[in-house]
């Protein structure tokens, strides 16, 4: 019986990388099933994704540890994953179109991830989450309680062993400390084909400007609002007959489509390195308590 795995990596381009990877897999009795690579001539970087199967009974952690000397030789950022789907914690506010779509695709088996919990700063979407059998946690946020609320969020991420946090129209800006704690494993959906219209009433701004495309962007969460590395995008063509209300409806479709593809895309097409733990606690002052375990994320390719 073979066991499937995927290796994703990035490093500075130099001779011998593909040879080193294939030699490692051959040495460990693995058969390459699929191989893709991209040479970024502008930045001098190589991005590689190799799907392979092992006849021996092993796991991703052991393969990752065995690959470490190869990665060290080429200063690679890498990740080895198995077939176990990512555990996703979803954050929402009052708009339910993205959550509804994620639940539908999860139940249909096409999401490529496992939903484990829903967290919200409002109670509005509790019935939707609980009807799907998902635990729902109401974590109110005010300027005075923001630090405690984010601490509770990180506790829930840890309790549910979440591999990925998805902001599905969560209408709160995370603090720099929370962004640092979730660096590389939190994604957001933005209501524009970035760069685009920022601030309130983006579809009204689009209508006033006479745009002919409505888009949405799924990206990594960073302290720079809506400027994180892009994972997925979707665009839908419109015309002059679309008023702001119609634009908002079309835009919600684009948001749901882009976000639904993001969990699988960020796992299988980017060399993002995952943290080895699931929670970085905040100190009483709101700072991230250092653990030495946080790792950087890749931008995808």
Describe this structure in words.
The protein has 301 residues and is an alpha/beta fold. The chain is 32% helix and 26% strand. Helix 3 crosses helix 8. It is globular and about 60 Å long. Mean pLDDT is 84; it is low at 270-301.
Topology (elements, then pairings):
Layout: E1 3-12, H1 17-27, E2 30-40, E3 45-54, H2 60-74, E4 77-81, E5 86-92, H3 97-108, E6 113-120, H4 126-131, E7 136-138, H5 146-159, E8 164-167, H6 176-181, E9 186-190, H7 202-209, E10 213-220, E11 230-237, H8 244-268
Parallel strand pairs: 5-6, 5-8, 6-7, 8-9
Antiparallel strand pairs: 1-3, 1-4, 2-3, 9-10, 10-11
Helix pairs in contact: 3-8, 7-8
List keywords for this structure.
32% helix, 8 helices, globular, 11 strands, 4-stranded antiparallel sheet, 7-stranded mixed sheet, 301 residues
Report how far apart the termini are.
Answer: 32 Å
Kindly estimate the percentage of residues that lie in beta strands according to DSSP.
Answer: 25-35%
What oligomeric state do the depicted chains represent?
single chain
Category by helix and strand content: alpha/beta
Shape: globular
Question: How is this structure best summarized?
Answer:
With 301 residues, the chain is an alpha/beta fold. The protein contains 8 helices and 11 strands.
